Amino acid sequence: VQLQASGGGSVPAGGSLRLSCAASGRAISTYVLGWFRQAPGKEREFVAGISSSSTTTYADSVKGRFTISRDNAKNTVYLQLNSLNTEDTAVYYCAARGWRRTTYDYWGQGTLVTVSS
Questions:
Q1: Dihedral (C-alpha) 59, 84, 70, 102: value to the nearest 10 degrees?
Q2: What is the tens place of the pLDDT at every residue in 60-107?
Q3: Where are the strands (E) in 8-75, listed by range?
Q4: Please, is 69 exposed, middle or buried when counting C-beta atoms within 10 Å of its C-beta (0-12, 13-18, 19+)?
Q5: Rounded distance, CA 103 to CA 98, Å?
Q6: For position 99, what pLDDT does the model report?
Q7: What contacts 89, CB < 8 A, 6 or more positions away?
Q8: What is the pLDDT of residues 8-66, one digit of tens each?
């Protein structure tokens, strides 16, 4: 599975962005999909995940502001980012894993989100 993330950019605090991650090479309908981020000088952290049945999980820091969704027909996963603040500045990565796996096996290249105050 190859993943291609897009949609990053620079926005002021309070703004919104929508990230997309298009998959190729295999249908991802049975995969668990996730978004992670890595801020400058920090370790990569989990942001949101969505199961094949569209059950979602979120990091506490983004609950109520970010929404993960998937469109299996388009082989794409999305992350809607609302009410952005400067602490959301990071490179965002999409990832995929088989439903039996506990670790993510496939990663996109990352897309940069910069939030200015």
A1: -30
A2: 999 999 999 999 999 999 999 999 999 999 999 999 999 899 999 999
A3: 9-12, 17-24, 32-38, 45-50, 56-58, 66-71
A4: middle
A5: 9
A6: 86
A7: 39, 40, 113, 114, 115
A8: 999 999 999 999 999 999 999 999 999 999 999 999 999 999 999 999 999 999 999 99
**Neighbouring residues of 102: CB distance < 8 A, sequence distance ≥ 6:** none
CA distance 79 to 65: 10
Instruction: Provide the residue count of the chain.
Output: 117
User: Which SS3 state, helix, strand or coil, does residue 61 take?
Assistant: coil
Q: Tell me the HSE value of 6 on the side-chain side, using a 13 A CA sphere.
A: 4
> How many whole angstroms separate alpha carbon 94 and alpha carbon 50?
11
In contact, 48 and 62? CB cutoff 8 Å: yes
